[in-house]
Design brief:
single chain, Rossmann fold, UDP-N-acetylmuramoyl-L-alanine:D-glutamate ligase, 11-stranded mixed sheet, 7-stranded parallel sheet
Length: about 525
């Protein structure tokens, strides 16, 4: 599924009107009908009071059309218009007159906080104040209205986007955004739904198809691609019957220091579990016995030093090198990373302390082979890129960094984002239980294991993030969020593969609901 900018969605509207020979008011009627159908399917005529708050633009026009449909079908709907300016869109005016033609219960014009209605906890609030074109924060009594609605215990349903958010721009005013319980968005999700600063206002959403031109949607270059199960299914590479372990590559995991051998163990085990043919761990001497006992399938190469890495020497070439997990930042270890990058021009997955080394020793960035995979969490990313003002600036800085250094950036989070030059891929699974020690080490090993099997580095990263999230979801269903450990994610990697091609037992009401 694609994510489009607000500008692209307006272009899609215009092309749809031209190709289908319809007017804007007809497209608005489609949108309102979809929302009505969604509500009607769930309410089945129940006389719960529905309070629809409309702006004076096209989003407000959607709300008026929805209110008319609800009233015509016997629902207890009341329309309110936030009358904060004399400027109204033509479609808003058309739908306003249509409401007046079918009921004496005309929209209530609101001009101040004195007009705020009483709302019962069992009522429903429909937010149709502002749409994706918002370019400044709501102010004055309209801001107070948004805050008033947020204080109510009633269910809040937003039309297309919670009022106060922009589709692909930074948060304007966090105190002037509807905190929607659910959002019904038109045709495609919005980028703002998936970012930490703004996504908290969109805990659940569903996409409603309003029939925008399919050719445009197919050919337009999106802001980002969402990764769901159908995409992940296409990534999977079937194994040949007569293949042997040598056909699935050899991962070298480099890392560890005294007290931090668990990170290497988790990465090495994840690489094996995802299908790498062979895995070797290069670790300080203190970690040799630990690896041999905890992951007997892994071979080891001990460093000459006891407690940290000092001299990573190889007389062979692995398929891929995953480096940094639990390594520490001892000067000897930093020097050994520089030597490794200088001598071995191979595919790399760079994580944890190796990322911090790159942040300190910027010259090492020039040694990274093209399509090296960097897997920073928020803190590591900030050390790499420098500070940013908001999530959208963060993405722009990440894209520039990726393009400049020709690397793949994996921004880990609730919705992990894979960035390759100007392309972005947003993962849709995973859960809060995965915010646990070692989860990132598992992910790095998992991605390295896919690279070893011949997956393209970008594909390995996107697919690896999906499998990691899927394994975490399966573990959470068994254990709950709080009881999950990183090793539980590894234990369910096999189930994640099987889940790729299993039919769902029950149809999910909204596969597009973020976890």
């Amino acid at each position: 599924m694609k994510i489009f900018s607000a500008k692209q969605l307006y272009e899609a509207d215009a092309i749809t009107l031209e190709k289908q020979g319809i007017q804007s008011i007809d497209l608005m009627e489609r949108a309102a009908t979809q929302i009505f159908n969604w509500l009607h399917q769930r309410m089945q005529g129940a006389q719960v009071p529905i309070h629809i708050f409309c702006g004076i633009g096209n989003n407000g026009g959607d709300g008026l059309a929805l209110g008319r449909l609800l009233i015509e079908n016997g629902y207890n709907a009341t329309l309110y218009v936030a009358n904060f300016t004399d400027k109204r869109s033509p479609c808003f005016l058309t739908n306003y007159n249509r409401v007046k033609a079918i009921t004496k219960k005309w929209p209530i014009l609101m001009t101040s906080e004195n007009d705020f209605p009483n709302i019962h906890a069992d009522d429903i609030i429909v937010d149709a104040l502002f749409g994706i074109g918002l370019n400044r924060a709501p102010e004055g009594w309209v801001k107070l209205l948004i805050q008033y609605l947020n204080q109510q215990q009633a269910f809040r349903l937003s039309v297309d986007i919670p009022s106060g958010l922009s589709a692909n721009e930074a948060l304007l005013d966090s105190e002037a955004v509807i905190k929607a319980n659910h959002t019904l968005t038109f045709q495609a999700p919005k980028l703002t739904f998936f970012l930490p600063e703004t996504g908290r206002f969109v805990p659940y959403f569903e996409v409603l198809d309003i029939g925008l031109d399919p050719e445009y949607l197919m050919t337009a270059l999106p802001l980002a691609q969402l990764i769901y199960k159908p995409q992940a299914q296409q990534f999977y590479k079937q194994r040949e019957k007569f293949a042997h372990k040598g056909a699935f590559g050899h991962v070298l995991v480099v890392g560890g220091s005294k007290g931090k051998m668990g990170a290497v163990s988790l990465s090495a085990k994840a690489a094996l579990k995802v299908g790498a043919g062979l895995v070797t761990a290069f670790v300080p001497a203190c970690g040799n016995d630990i690896l041999q006992v905890t992951v007997p399938e892994v071979m080891t190469l001990p460093d000459a030093a006891e407690n940290h890495l000092t001299n990573i020497t190889l007389d062979w070439s692995p398929s891929v090198i995953a480096v940094g997990m639990g390594m520490g930042q001892h000067p000897d270890s930093v020097a050994s990373i520089e030597n490794l990058l200088t001598e071995k021009k191979l595919p790399y997955v760079v994580d944890a302390d190796a990322l911090n080394v790159l942040s300190i020793e910027k010259k090492l960035l020039k040694l990274l082979p093209e399509n090296t995979i960097l897997t920073p969490h928020e803190g590591e990313l900030k050390r790499l890129l420098g500070p940013w003002k908001n999530d959208f600036e963060k993405l722009e800085k990440a894209k520039k960094f990726s393009g400049k250094h020709k690397v793949i950036l994996l921004l880990k989070g609730a919705h992990s984002v894979v960035i390759y030059h100007d392309k972005m891929y947003i993962n849709t699974n995973g859960n809060p239980g995965m915010a646990t020690a070692g989860s990132g080490d598992v992910l790095s090993g998992l991605i390295a294991g896919l690279c070893a099997q011949g997956y393209d580095p970008l594909l390995a990263t996107v697919f690896g993030v999906y499998l990691h999230g899927s394994a975490g979801d399966i573990a959470a269903n068994q254990l709950g969020f709080e009881a999950m450990m990183a090793s539980d994610i590894i234990a369910n990697i096999g189930s994640a593969f099987l889940n790729l091609f299993q039919q769902e037992q029950l149809s999910q009401e909204s596969e597009s609901e973020p976890n």
